[in-house]
Design goal:
The protein is an alpha+beta fold. It is built from eight helices and 32 strands. It has helices at residues 2-22, 138-154, 159-162, 179-187, 191-194, 211-216, 254-269, 295-311, and strands spanning 25-35, 38-45, 52-56, 63-66, 68-71, 78-84, 92-99, 102-103, 107-110, 121-125, 165-168, 199-201, 232-236, 239-243, 275-279, 315-319, 325-329, 335-340, 361-365, 368-376, 383-392, 397-409, 420-422, 425-428, 435-438, 450-458, 466-473, 477-478, 481-482, 491-493, 502-511, 523-527. The strands form seven sheets. A seven-stranded mixed β-sheet has the order 13-14-15-16-18-17-19. Strands 12-11-10-20-21-22 form a six-stranded mixed β-sheet. The longest helix has 21 residues, at 2-22. It is elongated.
Length: 530
Amino acid sequence: MKIKSFLLLILLFPFLGKSQTTDKFLVQPYLQDAEPNSIKILWETSTGEESIVQYGLSPKLGKKEIGSAHDVNFSESRVHEVKLKDLKRLTTYYYRVKTGKILSDIYQFKTPPFASDRQSFNMIAMSDMQRDHNNPEKFSEVVNDGILKYMEKEFGGAVPENLALVLIPGDLVATGTDYDQWQNEFFNPAEKLFSQVPVYPVLGNHEKNSTFYFKYFSLPENGTAGYAEHWWYKDYGNTRIIGLNSNDGYRDTPEQYKWLQKVLDKTAENEDIDFVFAQLHHPFKSELWIPGEEEFSGKVVKLLEDFSTKTGKPSIHFFGHTHGYSRGQSKNHKHLWINVASAGGAIDNWGEFEGRDYDEFTNTQDEYGFVMVEVDANKENPKFTVKRLSRGNENIERDNQQTDQITVYKNERKPNTPNAISPTGEDVAGKYGTLLKAGPFKSSFASAAHTASNWQLAENQNFESLTLDSWKQSENWYYMENRQKNDDLTDEITKRLKPSTTYFWRVRYRDQNLNWSDWSETQSFKTKAY
């Protein structure tokens, strides 16, 4: 009998070994849909239905929650989802996941605050990490040598203590219908980040509206009925984050536009929300790649601009699609335009595609990198600061070098009204244009700086039909040079003017926090006959 048993074990050994090697994690744990009192934890295994999260206030854990598993690829592999409930806000928890004999390492996360807690926080925005075969490890580099090392250097301590969430406005993989890409090219390179900090993506064109996207992510289901997870919103403290779908087949859907308007209307009434950050994949304007622009995104920008001006609550729209960084700002509103690519996709280099120097943008760079947003929830004067951390490009290597920054306050802090100096009177030369001149920038805030001027010229005092409406900013990084270098923004040349004609003109100044001064007193002059 002993000999027979031994022979049986020998025969079965190859199959037992095969079972042991195939029972494994395909995707390590990652976090979703965090609330002050709950969070979702997901992971994928090669087999097994058991979905258990062990968690607690220390690495000893002590508590357990059971969830569910679902098919992802018509195979034995399963995506597991467990929702932890009855958590304490602003609290660090430790956890690990278990499916059969498969047991993860112990990770940690921190629950969000309520808006009333007035708790400041940091977040990351990045996009377009689809693999470039010429630089296949770039996304891993951006996460591990970029974000994680930056967090360690700047803040120290555990990542969840200093980073609240990650936004991704699209193009997570090169081909959304390719099952293997989700594991190998998106989740696995970022597992050290996503296991500690919740990630909130929206669909890009490369996802191809794949079922894999919806099986892997468990996003807020507060969008329009029938469009679950295509558009949604999530509150973190004093900030409302809105995810949108700018892809073909959805960007022209009236339901999405109506839903967004309703969400903004409700946000206007919510005194706890100071800021709105929206994310969508396609740009309204792109200095590096005009063919990527979409009118739907322009409609979203218009809604956000009107919202910010009406409510006094500043806003941002984050986007990708163009593989480079851009930061712009609306002319008449406290609204930022930020392209947060490229986190891996091949860079859209200057001159490679059709581009255009738009007035809104002050900084466009063909580079890899990510964006850090630091939200200060100070009740008296909340603000946020946007920083660009660059990883450079093929020609210039950068190691998390900060290449751009802007701070926006909720409260208005107007600069002093500028003094319109000249021209005035009659017999002003206008055949080749004339020079408008104003006094120096002044503000009651010592830190304020002059970053934009808006000049208007018209043939009537109401400025209804403008001969000139010039908006210049202190920086205009376009095609690797600052086209506004050495412009102090206190004068502006007009185009050719009519002879023997009376003109009226005025100017206003803007500071680095997007605050406009009042318009100067209106001045007038009459051009010479010629």
